[in-house]
Write a structure and sequence with these properties.
It contains 16 helices and 21 strands. 36% of the residues lie in helices and 22% in strands.
């Protein structure tokens, strides 16, 4: 399917009925379904199976490293982070990351190839330049980072300058992700994250001069003090920066889960309907600026590799977002990191103490996970196809999983046909096509295929879709 930049206006009536708590499906089943019965032993078995199988020879790994530390607290943040100004914590953390890497290479063997690397957080640039160099040396000692791979790092613009960007380039990073959220001063004050456009613009210009292949800007809508008009101004400034990629996230206010969000005044959050208006304005502004809507609130310039992959049907979705690389096993290192190996998912301990304790005992710090069933894998294929391409051909699922898709998903297809009158989806004899208006509500639509979902009353703990 060709990529289409959306000139999107959602259904005038009933569109808000789809703005319900939902899931974004970085995995299927989602992480809230992981169980503590899954242990490090089961992950070790999956690692041995990879080493003994053909995947180790044919399919490069992806690596993710979680750096949990931040110097200051952003009130909106829902990430697993540790707010501290004690930079000596970074050195201790690196020592334990080294132990974790050693446990992986003991099972897999050294020299596994890697084509994707992402440093996230927290704030990866909390680490000093010397510590980042130590981390990259550690990874290169144990893995082979292939030429032409995607090597990215999340950057807080408040912690970096052009000189530090140059050192990141020297370490081999070729993609940057700048966390911005909003350029409006009132919004920045309300979320305790002051970083005006005048600070971000020279960093983007420096990244281009240094040869970084792409810059991603993260924005968020639904934040306190935001209005459709103020967000329109932020969008205009974003277009001025012209990043290659844009991640536009919906803020989900869940103070019962995230302590930092209790500092946000609910009275300052946008009123009902304003969030949807912000999203539709963003789609309109970015379309006029020649961005392609990839799906799930991600955008890329038309000549970006992600947009090319979208047009050619090669787009994939990973824990970190969209990727041009084939779906592959992922080793995820650090506190709370979620990895994938074969037909398993696993998650590390969520606190530093538990993470350190496991490694002190010579064990992978896994505290929960999941072994996928055949049904899970069929449904994952369907959900990821709709997430990446907004369409599904039944024949591809039939051949890939040796089922009759229309019979297997008869109930789900009936449910989707009930949404056709809303103009969100079309179900034919050969497949499913999500319409342009429906692309705003992809998470809601693919939830039809989620066998794990509990009753509607349990959905309140999920993040909002818009």
């Amino acid at each position: 399917m060709n990529a289409v930049a959306i000139n999107c206006m959602p259904p005038a009536e009933g569109s808000r009925s789809f703005d319900v708590p939902g899931l974004r499906y970085a995995t299927y089943p989602t992480a809230d379904r992981f169980v503590e019965a899954f242990s490090a032993d089961q992950l070790s078995q999956a690692l041995v199976q990879r080493r003994q199988g053909r995947a180790a020879m044919l399919q490069p790994l992806a690596l993710y490293v979680h750096i949990p530390f931040c110097e200051s607290l952003c009130y909106h943040c829902a990430c697993n982070k540790i707010v501290t100004k004690r930079h000596e914590n970074g050195a201790t953390y690196l020592r334990y990351l080294s132990r974790e890497v050693d446990l992986y290479t003991a099972s897999l063997g050294a020299g596994q190839t890697v084509s994707q690397l992402h440093l996230g957080g927290g704030t990866p640039t909390f680490l000093t330049d010397a510590e980042l160099r130590e981390l990259m040396t550690l990874l290169r000692r144990s893995f082979v980072l292939v030429p032409g791979g995607e090597y990215s790092i999340e950057v807080d613009p408040r912690t970096i300058d052009a000189q530090r960007l140059a050192r990141l380039a020297e370490l081999g990073f070729n993609r940057l992700s700048f966390g911005v959220q909003d350029f409006d001063p009132a919004v920045q004050k309300a979320i305790h994250r002051i970083q005006p456009l005048e600070e971000v613009l020279p960093l983007v210009e420096a990244a281009r001069a240094l040869g970084f292949e792409s810059v991603t800007i993260d924005l968020m809508y639904g934040l306190p003090q935001q209005t459709p008009e103020s967000f329109q101004r932020t969008l205009a400034q974003l277009v001025q920066l012209r990043p290659e990629r844009i991640a536009l996230h919906a803020y989900s206010h869940q103070p019962h889960r995230f302590k930092s969000q209790r500092r946000i005044r609910e009275a300052e959050l946008p009123p009902e309907g304003a969030r949807l208006e912000m999203l539709t304005r963003a789609l309109s502004v970015l379309e006029r600026a020649a961005y392609v809507y990839l799906g799930m609130e991600h955008f890329a310039l038309a000549n970006d590799p992600l947009s090319v992959a979208k047009r050619q049907g090669r787009l994939h979705r990973t824990f970190e977002g969209y990727s041009t690389r084939p779906d592959c096993d992922q080793i995820s290192l650090g506190v709370s990191a979620i990895g994938r190996m074969g037909a398993t998912y696993s998650q590390n301990a969520r606190t530093l103490q538990a993470y350190y304790d496991s490694l002190d005992q010579g064990r992978l710090p896994v505290v929960r996970g999941l072994s996928l069933t055949r049904d899970d894998m069929v449904r994952r294929s369907v959900i990821m196809a709709l997430m990446c391409h907004q369409q599904l051909e039944f024949e591809s699922i039939d051949l890939g999983h040796l089922i009759d898709c229309k019979s297997y998903f008869a109930a789900e297809l009936d449910a989707l046909r009930g949404l056709q009158a809303q103009g969100l989806v079309e179900v034919s004899e050969t497949g499913i096509q999500i319409t342009e208006a429906g692309r705003l509500f992809v998470p809601t639509l693919v939830m039809v295929f989620d066998r794990c979902l509990q009753a509607d009353r349990a959905r309140a703990r999920f993040s909002r879709i818009i």
